[in-house]
Specification:
4 helices, elongated
């Protein structure tokens, strides 16, 4: 497992994030809004997607160059792209959104979790002795 598995994982994660962030950008008024806290603007949503995706691409490139720790850091930062979706469920009415919106939010959260797990796996695998059964 390595760059090929990450390429597949990031391909899925980025595709899911395009759907989630595009819907969030285009239909931000249809999402439940927090009563007292900040709500991201459309510009913030777009900038966040570009910034997060840059970490994904950078993490992949660093892994291909063998820079494991730096790649893991970038991938962990990219994982935030999906994990931030948990914030939708801190607002009243989030579970009343249509099923297809729920699906892409939950899929984005799952992808973020998988990317974070991959980043952790890279670091743990690197720290194990070469004869470990884990490798």
């Amino acid at each position: 497992m390595g760059a090929g598995a990450l390429r597949l994982l990031l391909g899925v994660a980025i595709a899911v994030s395009v759907v989630h962030y595009a819907d969030n950008f285009a239909n931000s008024d249809d999402y439940p809004q927090p009563d007292g806290g900040p709500s991201p603007s459309r510009a913030a949503i777009a900038v966040a997607w570009v910034a997060f995706t840059a970490f994904a691409v950078t993490g992949y490139a660093l892994l291909r160059r063998g820079r494991i720790t730096a790649a893991a850091v970038c991938l962990a930062l990219y994982a935030g792209s999906g994990l931030v979706g948990l914030g939708h469920y801190t607002v009243d009415g989030a579970t009343d959104m249509p099923w297809w919106r729920q699906a892409h939010i939950v899929a984005d959260i799952a992808c973020g979790t998988a990317v974070l797990a991959f980043a952790v796996w890279l670091v743990v695998r690197r720290r194990l002795p070469p004869d470990s059964a884990f490798t």
